[in-house]
Here is the input.
Amino acid sequence: MEIYLDNGATTRPFEVVIEEMCKVFREDYGNPSSLHKKGFEAEKYIINSKEIFSKILKVNQKEIYFTSGGTESNNLAILGVANAYKRSGKHIITTAIEHSSVKNTINYLGDNDYEITVLPVDSNGLIDLEQLRDSIREDTILVSIMHVNNEISTIMPIEEIGKVIKEKNKNTIFHVDAIQSFGKLNIYPKKWNIDLVSISGHKFHAPKGVGVIYINDNIKINPIIYGGYQQNGIRSGTENVPGIAAIGLAAKMMYDNLDSNVEHLYELKRHLAGRIMNEITDTVINGIDVDKGAPHILSIRFNKVRGEVLLHSLEEKDIFVSTGSACSSNKPSKLGPLQGIGLNNEEALSTVRFSFCINNTIEELDKCVDELKNIVPLLRKFVRH
Amino acid sequence: MSNLKKAFLVKYGEIAIKGKNRYIFENILADHIRRALKPCGDFKVSKEQGRIFIEPFSDYDYDEVVDRLSRIFGLVGICPVVVLEDMDFETVKEATLMYMKDEYEDFNFTFKVESRRADKRYPLNSMEIACEVGAYLLDHIPELKVDVKKPDVKVWVEIRSRAYIYSKIIKGLGGMPVGSNGKAMLMLSGGIDSPVAGYLVAKRGVKLDAVYYHSHPYTSERAKQKVIDLAKIVSRYSGRINLNVVPFTDIQLYIYEQCPHEQLTIIMRRIMMIIAERLAEKYGAIALVTGESIGQVASQTIQSLNATNSVCNMPVFRPLIGFDKQEIVEISEKIDTYGTSILPYEDCCTIFVAKHPVTKPSLKSIIRSERRLEKIDEMIEEAINNVELVKIKPDEEE
Here is the structure.
């Protein structure tokens, strides 16, 4: 039996989502821009998905746009604001633990005339709100901060951050990368002063290759893709209708039962953390307390074990976990959130991330712990000198 | 374009001096050419007095044919030629002119006609052919200038059973045709050096099989795939490779438990050599190939090489022994293994490296340490029995 505990990297699409997609591929394959009935049938899926997202986020339907995924949403948010507002200022604020799709996009701007402030985080992965307040200036056009950290599960106090930003400079635009939080936590852009929210389908049981961005109707944003003026020209290109239908359906499923889903995820997380800490010596939970972090991510350090070796040992037992974030696991030299919260290289390399989805069970985690209890002591016998 | 008949004339180097055995080498080479060109169309490959003649009978992609030919060891030059069945001298002269007009757009260069007459019954001798063709070209293309000492372009006119005209020689790899010099077992890791070593030995006509030591979970599936990919690139030059993936974790851990850690690498390498030699015997290979070069790492000092070498009876070829890293990198870039070699997956040589590995091991003390490995023979046997065989074929054979 396969035990998949790498849901922070990607999730398995829901069966009904796959069925829905197949139906769209087979029957409703029209181009939503076409004037005929086939086009209109396809467009309905887009309208329907927009409605679902606008209800979940409590925003207007026209503020929802579809993209190819989280990376594009983050790029569009950051580059779109930078280009539209470069005459108002060139100062951008972000944090030290952002995902590479935010970090590298902002670094690119830093190399091209923009001034970047990177806020450090404490050992829990949280920024200091006063430091944020002090960093915001007249010419700060954008603050980009993630909602949930993909590696260490920190939940940033987005509502308070939004308040701080708008109090200090009402013109500063606030972007939230909600890729790891969407589907597990609520996020209310209007109430929380957020102007841009990035969402990615494959993190909550929709397929890869589809994402969403919420764009506050009151802000300007320049497109990064030009073409046939689909989606008001903000994101040209024929819409990925099967993907859009799928992401809407998956989002609805996640939020229809949000409370019980979250409760189940926390139960899994507490159970796994509790057993590992009690039954395997020399293990440390990275970052914030289990109950204060996101419900689906648990980062644990197995001292004197290389995370990657542990990963491959578990893989032999058909248990799939990750070391740092999957997107950067081939580049161990790059600084990530683990170093951001003060871990040294050794500690970062001995870390394994377990990430859950609502379909995981306590039995699966028990099997995982039982294997860990065998493997970890064995691996500790053999270490590099 | 004129309707001159185009073909390829291939020149080979060393094997031309092989005396009575020459035909064996020529046949192997012709076979390699046939196999390499099979996916490109219908070709007739024939031997012709010190040359191989490749005649197309269907449409083909010129660049692809040249690319494939230039990966075959044994070829020193590939000449796109025009072929004349009718060797009447007037025809030869006209064809040469037509060839020049096809090949060159602007004639602002110096040239010289070189001629060879294998068919001694031909009414003109080489000198006369060269002079008359040269004069004919000058008459018809007045911009041309003759320079007999350092011409920009040499135009070759060869009279054999047919006449050939060419002026361009694409450099081949040289070496000897693979399979003309027996078989060796390449110890392939995921690094930069070993694929280059394999390439260089294959260049001497040696057919290759390979062995890779896999230490799951300490090394990943991606590390194994990387080695498969490297073997695949080497096979573009060397032909098919039997890649033996040896499960090596238990042996490594056993050495780790039993032996002094500063000797780990040397002992591990000695056992790798033993396994490689056993596998070589199984496949009819009679030598080992490694990517070692003197002093590159602790296990490659001459004392260490002596210690590892002493476990095996077969000759061990180390074609990189005197190369420095930069030279090795240059070859790996040229043969296109570099980009794959630098992918960051660990191989078994790097997982249990002591901080201060011994650099001048005494063979006596290594042997003394190895006495603690009571179970090693069984473990070697088991590793060999559990080898995963991956059959590597060059792309054109798939």
